[in-house]
Every structure is written in C-alpha cells, then in structure tokens.
Design a protein that fits this description.
This protein is mainly α. The protein contains nine helices and no strands. Helix 2 crosses helix 9, helix 4 runs antiparallel to helix 6 and helix 6 packs parallel to helix 9. The chain is globular. Bound molecules: magnesium ion.
C-alpha cells in the first residue's frame, strides 16, 4: 500500500514536470505517429498515445524524467558546479550522459528502439525541434533525449504488438 502511494507520487511529479517544460503526452504521441505511419498507414494518434501512456507509467522512465529535468533546470539557474554547469548549459555535444540516460528508456521494449531513437534524434520533428530551439533561453540538454527515447520505446511497443496481432 505504502509502495503504491509512493509510486503515484513519483508518476504525478514526473508528469507535472513534463507539462511544466511544455511537453504533453500528445506531443510524444505525434513523434510515435511520425516514426510508425510508414509501417502502419491506418495508424491513429489515439493508439500512439496509449502506447506513450504505458511507457510513462514505468518507474524507470519517471525516474529518468525527474532526474533529467532537475539537471536541466538547475543548469538554467546556474546552480551546478563547474565544469558541469557550462557543459550542460551549452549542451556540449561530447558530454553524452544525456544520451546514456535515454538509452535506459530506449531499451525497455527491445533493441528496435535504438533504430527509432537514432532516426528521430537526427530528424528532430515536432516537439523535438522546440526542445532544441536555443532561442527560448531554456535548457533541454537531458529532456530532448528523454522525450525522443520515450517516443522510440512507445514505437517499439506498438510495433511488437502489431506484429503479435498479425
Ligand atoms: Mg541532449
């Protein structure tokens, strides 16, 4: 019982933080649709959204969201120690820890998540283009990878389920 309560608090916090940073589950569902529509021409946004919701209900995903957004916002406020402060605030490309955190999400539904993640990270459609817009003054060094990873994991889940249904 205590455990359930605790998980609810973490999930609520992760979802609230995502919303505060301008990311709604629907935005991630749009990324899933972008990734999967060529394989499933009749795919609807609702089905993408239900897969995103399942990924967001996973504790390891919620933990990554909370940790990543905490580091992003701390960097915005200049609260980190140097040299980490500059590395995260400028989204230094060789840092790589943001991507490592994202891989823990990508892996949840098997290795096809890697292909989806790589593709979406290169194309940066929809919400990913907003998160990579440096002119907003916000820091999304961790969040852009986490959002891409959730979309990749949800795409993998959707693809596995579609294959099983056939
Ligand atoms: Mg990043």
């Amino acid at each position: 019982m205590e455990q359930d309560k605790k998980m609810d608090t973490v999930e609520r916090a992760a979802r609230d933080k995502l919303a505060e940073r301008g990311v709604k589950p629907k935005h991630i569902a749009e990324l899933v649709l972008f990734l999967q529509k060529k394989y499933h021409p009749n795919l609807q946004l609702d089905e993408c959204l239900s897969n995103v919701e399942r990924v967001l209900s996973k504790r390891e995903v919620q933990n990554a969201i909370l940790t990543g957004i905490h580091l992003d916002t701390a960097a915005e406020k200049g609260l980190l120690d140097e040299p980490l402060q500059s590395i995260i605030a400028t989204d230094e490309s060789l840092y790589g820890v943001d991507e490592i955190m994202a891989f823990s999400i990508v892996n949840i539904y098997g290795s096809i998540g890697f292909t989806n993640y790589g593709y979406i990270d290169k194309e940066k459609p929809g919400i990913l283009s907003y998160l990579n817009d440096k002119s907003t003054g916000m820091c999304h060094t961790f969040l852009d990878d986490i959002v891409g990873a959730i979309a990749a994991a949800a795409s993998s889940r959707l693809a596995h389920r579609a294959r099983n249904a056939e």
